[in-house]
Write a structure and sequence with these properties.
The protein is an alpha/beta fold. It has a single domain, classed as Rossmann fold. It has helices spanning 62-85, 100-107, 121-125, 159-169, 188-191, 209-218, 230-243, 251-265; strands spanning 14-20, 23-28, 34-36, 90-94, 111-115, 144-150, 170-181, 205-206, 221-227, 272-279. The protein has a six-stranded mixed β-sheet with strand order 5-4-6-7-10-9, sandwiched between helices. The termini are far apart. The mean pLDDT is 89.
Length: 280
């Protein structure tokens, strides 16, 4: 286990925010960024990415089927975003699990590649439809028109190393698409420590619109666009009810409240944030 300070302002002053799965989530006294501390280091955390972890799982349960149903819709929605903001066909899907979205993109004319250190590489490498980058040193410099990070940024231990990679392999005219759970999601007030997107200890940083924008601004990027992710709102509510079934009676109210909040409040209130960044 390692104790860390705030990545954004580098302060080590923190206060307790919430406990989830037996781990402490803290809030920075200085800038209010929320993160996990103490946390498993980059080697310890690997044991929490078992084959039962849903994005990597092949199990066929009710909730895994629901996940695949939402995923099918999400792929089409993501494809629209990629088509709108990519300046070319070379795409790196960073943290893309088993490579399902990479396959989807390639079937639609893209030259996309997968990098995900937390997925079982041997299984993915057998899939001829997925181009896998096994090591960071194999990523080409100034090569990609677009880098996508769909719910992967919150898993990264070494953010400095990540931004060095992005800066080196992204073309000057390229874009970065990032989606992360929003710690200010409307349904969070109901589920609190049972909110599924806290996901300790896999989720290391818990971003708001402000903190996500600041990290990228400090690294030389500006926000080009933001989008609501209404499908994530419904999915996160259902998965949180799985964690705490007593909430099932309140599902219609929580869903309606959350959707209205997101529609009125805009992308900054979405259950998941989705930003498009470009270099300054």
């Amino acid at each position: 286990m390692e104790t860390v300070g705030c990545y954004i302002c580098k302060s080590s002053d923190q206060k307790h925010f919430i406990k989830n799965n037996g781990f402490n989530i803290v809030k920075c006294f200085n800038c209010s960024h929320i993160y996990l501390s103490p946390r498993p280091d980059a080697y310890e955390v690997e044991k929490y990415y078992s084959s039962s972890y849903m994005p990597h799982s092949s199990e066929k349960t009710l909730f895994s089927r629901l996940y695949r149903l939402v995923q099918s819709y999400a792929f089409k929605w993501k494809f629209g975003i990629v088509s709108s903001f990519s300046t070319g066909k070379n795409v790196l899907d960073f943290g893309g699990g088993k490579g399902d979205f990479v396959k989807f993109l390639n079937k639609h004319g893209y030259n996309s590649s997968l990098y995900d250190k937390n997925v079982e590489q041997s299984a993915v490498l057998k899939d001829q439809e997925v181009k896998v980058i096994s090591s960071l040193k194999d990523i080409k410099t100034n090569h990609f028109d677009l880098i996508t990070m769909w719910h992967s940024l919150e898993h990264i231990h070494d953010l400095d190393k990540l931004f060095f990679l992005i800066n080196s392999c992204l073309k000057r005219s390229g874009r970065v698409i990032v989606s992360v759970p929003n710690i200010k999601a409307p349904e969070m007030i109901f589920f609190k420590e049972f909110w599924v997107a806290l996901d300790s200890p896999r989720h290391l940083n818990h971003f708001s619109s402000e903190s996500l924008g600041k990290i990228f601004k400090d690294k030389g990027y500006i926000v080009e666009n933001k989008k609501r992710m209404l499908h994530d709102t419904a999915f996160n509510i259902l998965m949180s009810i799985k964690e705490k079934p007593v909430f099932i009676a309140f599902f219609p109210f929580i869903l309606l409240y959350s959707l209205i909040t997101v529609i009125i409040g805009g992308p900054d209130r979405s259950s998941s944030l989705m930003f498009v960044f470009k270099k300054k």
